[in-house]
Amino acid sequence: MPAFSFNDTLVLAATMFSVGLAGVLVRRNMVFMLMSLDIMLNAAALVFVAAGARWHDATGQVMFVLILALAAVETAVGLAIILRLHAHGRPTLDADAGNLLEG
C-alpha cells in the first residue's frame, strides 16, 4: 500500500502549483520568480510521477527527467539574464527593469 494516495498527491501538486503561481504573479524580484517557476515545474513533475505510479508506467519517470532538465535550463537562462542586467548597470532584481534594456 502506498504511503500517499493518488488524490493526496494531486492535491499536493495543485497546492505547490498554486504557491508557485502566486509567487510569480505577486513578487517582482527575478530570483524569487525563478524559484516560483521551479516550484511550478516540480508540481507538474510530481503529477507525472504520481500518474506513472498509479498506472504502473515508466513514462511518468521519463517525463520527470525531461521536466528536471527543462527546469535546469530555465534556471541557467534566467540567471544569465539577471547577470546581463547587472552588467549593463542595472543593479536591481526588479523584473520591470528588463524593459529598459536597449540593443
Explain what the structure shows.
By secondary structure, this protein is mostly helical. It has a single domain, classed as Helix Hairpins. 73% of the residues lie in helices and 0% in strands. It contains three helices and no strands. It has helices at 6-26, 30-54, 59-87. The chain is elongated, with a radius of gyration of 17 Å. The mean pLDDT is 90. Pfam families: Oxidored_q2. It is a multi-pass membrane protein. This is NADH-quinone oxidoreductase subunit K.
Structural class: mainly alpha
Distance between the termini: 58 Å
Tell me the domain tally: 1
Query: What is the radius of gyration computed over CA atoms, rounded to a whole number of angstroms?
Result: 17 Å
User: How much beta, percentage-wise?
Assistant: under 5%
Q: So how many helices?
A: 3
CATH architecture name: Orthogonal Bundle
Per the principal axes of the C-alpha atoms, what is the gross shape?
A: elongated
Q: What key attributes describe this structure?
A:
103 residues; mainly alpha; Helix Hairpins; 3 helices; elongated; membrane
Outline:
With 103 residues, this protein is mainly α. It contains three helices and no strands.
